[in-house]
Amino acid sequence: MKEKELTALVIDDDMSWLQTLCRLAKKVGYKTLTASFYNEAIELINKFVPDFVITDIRLVDDDKNNDDGLQILKYMKKNELLKESIIVTGYPTYETKKIADELGVLYFKKGQFSKDEFQSELNKSKKKLLSEQNIPLRVSNQCNLKCLKKLIKKIYLKVCHKQEFIIQNSFVGFSY
Amino acid sequence: MIKNSIIKSIANKISRLLDTDRFYIALYDPIKEVLNFPYSIDNKKIIKWPSRQFNNNLFPDVSIKNKETMLFEDNVLNSLKEKNITYWPHSKQPLSCLSVPMIAENNVVGLIVVENTHKSKAFGNNGVRILNTIARMAAMAILKNSLYNKLNRNNKSLQILNEMGLILTSNINLSKTEILELIYTQASKLMDTNNMYVALYDQDPNKKDIFKNKNPHENKIYGTISFLVAFVEGKPVDIRPRKAGYGRTETIIRDKQPILIKTRDESIEWYQGLNRQEYIGEPFASWLGVPMMKGDKIIGVVATYHTKNNYVYDENDLQILSMLANQAAVAIENIKSYKKIESKLILKEQQKNALTELLALNDLTGRFVHKVNNMAGNIPLTIEFIEEHLNERGVKDNVLMSDLMSIKRKVQNLIDIANRIQESTQKLENGDSKGLKKVNVISLLEKAIFQTSAGIDSKKFWEKYQIVKEYLDSSLFIETFETIFTEALSNLMSNAVESMPEGGILTLRTYKQQINGSDYAIVTIKDTGKGIPKNDYDKIYYINYSKRSGGLGYGLWLVKRICVATGTDINFISIEEKGTEFFLKIPL
Fold first, then answer.
1. Minimal C-alpha gap between B401 and chain A (Å)
2. What's the pLDDT tens digit per position in A21-36?
3. What homologous superfamily does CATH list for A6-133?
């Protein structure tokens, strides 16, 4: 069976890093999308729902909070769009590392990792994503309504490339 | 002093109305029990008699004692002898004499004695009536005059106190000595201050004084007395400070009560009391000493004395000197508090500046490292791509590969250094942005140990180094920037450990110490390493100082900056090849 192509969104305001990270992702087999700042990234996320996100944290020089990249990941988490992601930062701090841990995101410091280390993590994530995609849609008797809604939302977003999914109350009547 | 005009007017009336060739006016001081003779005439000549002690057995003193008029017109001496009274003065005996006390509002203010050395029965009842009238008038005039003097003195006292208050309140920058000299200047306007000293008392920092308010006689003092202002016979003198002993100054400090000695006899008797010692060799005739009090706290003593004269000082002097002393005490304490607050403000300002500097440094290094990482961070990765590309194409070029590896290593080194600097400075900001925090010293030390061990290799750290913890006080809480202070401790520990590459003992001590009345937490970090060379003592806090290969030389510089920012004093002692001990003095 042909392996499904996964999409990686690479976000960095530094062009040379954007290229390097894309190159690394492509080598592992991801199709890549690129963004250099917050709004651009959000637009792409909503449009394409990427499987994988590689993001820098500080996306503009005057980002006093130093957290644009984190805000993107938080947005994805909030909207249940966050699957696998890696932070690559040139401005590592305890605070950002702490948030990355809370989001369950890998944290790489620019200039302090090798090609192999990074690609190994990309490969691990890829395997995980593929295995999740291959899970057949099986709904057990124990699956409650909340779980079911989540599952349907996932499928809908994937298939229809829609930005929003609202389950009406009438949906409660769905029978399985 | 009685006005001369009153005395002269009395004398004039006596000369005109009575048949006398010798007469005198005596003023009686009931406090000193002394008779003063402001005016005496003998055969039309004014004579000066010195003051003398009141004596019950003398004529005319009996007249004062009994408040009665005494007239002797025949055989004066025998008449007196019959009454067991001795005639005074012991000059030519009079044939008639008349003594009339001057009484006003039932108080005897003195007496007038008229005598005739040539004639018996010179005065008679008529003379008695005349002299009584003169004496009554004179007594009233004297009383009025003394009330006026009293009022005048009170006014002057108030004026002097007011003046002192004005000077003290309008000059917050007066020195301690200037304030004490002010006591001397102001007191001199009211009393005899030819011999005067102002002594300040400093408690022994190692032995606490004992003050029992209920039993002041059991009080004990162990401090030092310094004589900041001293005058002997009107000339300023230097008196060496002395350890508290058993003189009058010490008694005043112990009892917090003034001492007023009016006569030499009293002075001698005072020294006969328990635990009292005379330092000069001859007890002074008059001595007045008052405590300088601020609330319940005694800070010194003001004393003034007269070596020869009795009754130089009285209760009024005591009162005014006490007020001046207390005003000065309050001013000295206020200035002390002001200086304390001022130095605290300066320290806070320094801390604020140092912290701002550190935070700016953090921001700057952060931006710099960000740039380095962005610009150079992907060079090693790019080289890896080239390497891979060449391998895929089967290109084997050792020179090219070696050059690429060299570039990769150098860039990697550059990135490592930049990140180490940033790692170190970024700790300054995190967690301390909310400001000062009360933290336990031991918990800071423990965090710093953890940080140090993690920075090396935790397992190796505990294998190689023996950590001796002498935490003598577990209740020491300091107000500090927790993260940066931990960073300073950790830097010192890292240095200690690095100075013992073969392993050794790292001793950490903490205890409380009182220095100049303020409490401090002392933290010491001691190693058994190489020590600091003597020539480097002045350089260790410079930014480039490093004895470690590959060291960047900002560790101790940063420690010093953090110490300034947190109001901590840092010092060290070091012996080459034996080790170094750093001392941190942190205000509590």
1. 17
2. 999 999 999 999 999 9
3. Response regulator (3.40.50.2300)
